[in-house]
Every structure is written in structure tokens, then in C-alpha cells.
């Protein structure tokens, strides 16, 4: 990741990605564990060169609250497992039907639909396994952090977003309906990522609220920008099929309000994310830089 | 359930099913929660008239350890959510491809594959949500009971069984390979059901070991009997497509060792399950009756 601010985000993210990848590799059963197929499939998607935005946000949020990266790593990995599971299932033919993801063939294209479904299931289960092995803090028990994950990935948030997205295909949606989808499909897990980082650092109520606001706005901005990139970039640049939203007549911000207004909305949401970080009084430099990077992705 | 023993298993199970159904109904988002489709789909499979064998075993195990049914109910519900999720995904066209389950059309036949995948995901997530809301006991923390569930339903147990089952189709398997599948696909969750019941009652190590042995043997017996029933019963009797194992050339006990030897193995495993209950000195009457009922299912 490169940021236009003075802060060296590139160096920060490279270090953090290394730590996250090492931890994920340790948490997951080895690639030769039996049955080999399922562990290869889980690792295919988990180590497909994702940008690790969510777990990095977890770590940076912990640091903003004065916590240690080492204490935040397990919950960061749990969040990434949930994210990867949701991508595997979302890419399936009966859902978004995507052949490419992060520049690689999607899980079901390599391993078949049956194994892809099971690999997603296994990663979701793995997330709760990792979360249950995390050391609790004074304010946040294992039960609390687990409920944070179940709430976010359950039938009224992450899955609700996918259902609404599926049911909205080919329909003209209002901005409110679009926002309902984005809040659940993207913003919920980014918010959860930030909150869990704070929780791992035994954060105060004020800090948790700030991280919640930050995650929510950055999450919405992220999805608006993703919609924009789908229109403006090539498949090669995206690492996944470009122009797909338009092809399946999916409701997006550019389709609803046009490209220019979408860019303005993204900018506005990012500004609100910056504002949310005020209580950290300059200690949230990494989070600020991430917000800037997300807005400035090429479009 | 009717048992051939003097114990009134039928009355016991009717009462317990009522308690389980009431609790599941309370734990799950209401059928009118948005998005309505996903909650209808979750409830379609969860309230399809299953025999609730696993959660009943959880409750009966708690009682055998001197625990209260009310304390065991949440974990019993978590187990049933995991069981139902695994059935929904297992029934999908890319896995077992089943059109009927418990006498009703399978989830994807009613709601489509996309929603069925998401409904399974949501029920798996719901299981961990319920488990995290459970009151811990002195010996068993939320982390311990959650890890019991993640271990059982993860890539080296429940999912490993489904993978091995999928990869074994059309192949001649050895009895050891068949046992590998059964231990993971069926026995693991039945064992987990019994252990969690014990844990909810703050059981001793001896009691936990006894419940583990009981669950393992009854689980293996259960699958052998299921294989036998697939050969000897009609679809109407089973509530699902009969003769399916043979049609897809699936490895089963009757196919591997014949019908008579399969029945002997089932009887032998059930005897071992009875034996495992000795430490409870007559306090495990419900568990005994359940083992007897499972063996005596019509074949």
C-alpha cells in the first residue's frame, strides 16, 4: 500500500502483512494435514495475495489504543478468515458467479463447488476457533469478542448484505437500499475489524465508539470506491472480472448517482472517517494513512 | 421415539423436543426479521420435524451428571444448529445432491442454491452466537465449550468426513476408510453433543470420558444403522431418498461387509455404548434408552 501522506504506510503494511501471514500459517492446519484437499483449498484463498486491509485495521486500531500488535494478531486473523470465507461463498456460481479473485482463479474453479463450499465453512469455523484461543482483556471477555464476530457475520449483517445484494440484482434500488447492502456486506466487517483491535488493547468506551465510527465510514467509502473501480479499471488492474456489476445490472453507486457524485460521496465518507479519529490525538497515524490510501486507489 | 425398554423414552423425548424447539425459536431471529428470505430458509430446515437426537443427548448427558436441563439447553441448541447447517450444505447439488430431507424438500429445492448456502452459513454462525451466550461453569469456560464446537465442526472432523465421503464416491473403500468417514461425519458431533451436556453440568473428568466413549460408540452405531436403513427402507419411511447410497455407488457398511455383518457390528457398538455408561450407576437411564432406540429403528 502506498499513501500520499508523509507517513510510510507501505513499510507499515509490509511489516504487518508479514506478521499476519505468519500467524495465519500457524493457526491453520498444515497443507499436508488430512484431508489434504480441504486444507489446500482453505490455503488457496487465504494466501492468494490479499491486501489484508481488515486485519491491518485491527492491528492499527490496537496500536491507536496503546495496545500491542502481538495481542491483536489472533483477532486480526479471525477477521481475515471470515472475510476469506465470505469471498469463497460469494464467488460461487449460485451467488456472484466470479471466476477470478485477487488475480487467481476462484476457489470453486480450482477445487470444484463442493470443496469450495466446505473450504468456506471450514474457514468460518476456524475464525471462531482462533477467537476462542485469544487471551481476554479486563473489559472484553472471550464471550464478548466472539459475539462481536457472530453479530457481524450473522444473518442480520454480513449475510443479510449478501442476501439483499442477491435479491437486488436487476432491480433499480434506491440509495437507502444500496446503503443497507453496503453497511452489511462491507462496512460491518471493517467496523468489526477496528473494534476488535480496540478490544484486544482493552480500550475505553470512548475509544471503542471512535473506532466504530471510523470503521463504519471507511467501510462505506470502501464499497463506493469498489463500485467506482469496477467501472473505471480493467480486469488486470482489479485482479477480478471488471465491469461485472454493469453486466449483471447490479445496483451500484455509479449506476445510481453517476461517477462524479460517487467520487464526492467517497471523499465525504473518508473525511468523516478522519474526523472519527480525533479522540486518538495523533496516535492513529496508521489508521489515517489507511483511510487516505483507500480513497486514493487509482480510478 | 419409542424404546423397547421399560423406560418411557417417548414421553421423555416429547418433553425435551418441546423445550429444545422453544429455545431454538427464541435464539433465532424471528421469521419476520429482515431479510425475511434468509430467516425463513434457516427456519425451514431447523423446524423441519427432525428427531432432535443430538440436542436430546446433550440434555440427557447433563442430567446423567446431575445437571439441570435449563443449563444445558443453549449448548443443545448450538449443536442442533451445527447439525442442520451441515445437512443443508451436504444436500446441495455439488455435494450429496439430495432433494428430500426429513420428508420435506431440501433447502435449496425451496429457496435456491445461493440462499441455501447462506442459510447454512448463518446457522453455523448462530451456533457460536448461542454458545457464547451460555453461562460458563467452574470447570468449563466459554472458550472451552466454543473450542469443543470448533474442533468438532472443523476441517479435521465434521468437514473432513464430508470431504472423505465426497472423494470416496464410486471407490471401493476399506473398512478402516469407511470408519474414518463415519467417525468424523457422524460420530464426532454425537460425541460433542454428549460432552457439552456434561460440561454444562460441570462434570468430572471421569464423567466426561464416559460421555466421550458413549458418544463415539453410539455415533458409529448410528451411521452403520443409517447405511442399513438406506438399503432396507422406502423413501417414505426414511423421509429422504432411499437406495441413494447404492445408486451413487457410495461406500457403506452393507456394501463392504453385507447386511448381516453390518447388523452385528451395530449391535456390538451399541453394547459398547451401554458399557460406557457404567460410571453413572443407573443415573443415565435416558441415554441408555436412546441407545436402545437407535439400534431398534425398523430394519
Description:
The structure is a homodimer of 299-residue chains. Chain A has 299 residues and is an all-alpha fold. The first copy, chain A, has one domain (9-290): Farnesyl Diphosphate Synthase (Orthogonal Bundle), CATH 1.10.600. Chain A contains 15 helices and 2 strands. Chain A has a two-stranded antiparallel sheet with strand order 1-2. In chain A, strand 1 and strand 2 form a beta hairpin. In chain A, helix 3 (53-64) runs antiparallel to helix 15 (285-296). The longest helix of chain A is centred in the C-terminal third of the chain and has 28 residues, at 205-232. Chain A is globular, with a radius of gyration of 18 Å. Chain A starts with 8 loop residues before the first helix and ends with a helix. The interface between A and B is large, with 49 and 49 residues.
Question: Which strands sit side by side, in order, in the main sheet of chain A?
Answer: 1-2
The multimeric state of the shown protein is: homodimer
Largest sheet of chain A: 2 strands, antiparallel
Structural class of chain A: mainly alpha
CATH secondary-structure class of chain A: Mainly Alpha
N-to-C CA distance of chain A:
15 Å
Report the principal-axis shape of chain A.
globular
Arithmetic mean of pLDDT of chain A: 92
Q: Give the amount of beta strand of chain A, in percent.
A: under 5%
CATH homologous superfamily classification of chain A: Farnesyl Diphosphate Synthase
Low-confidence stretches of chain A: none
The tally of strands of chain A reads 2
The count of domains of chain A is: 1
Task: Give the CATH topology of chain A.
Answer: Farnesyl Diphosphate Synthase
Number of helices of chain A: 15
Rg over C-alpha atoms of chain A, rounded to the nearest angstrom: 18 Å
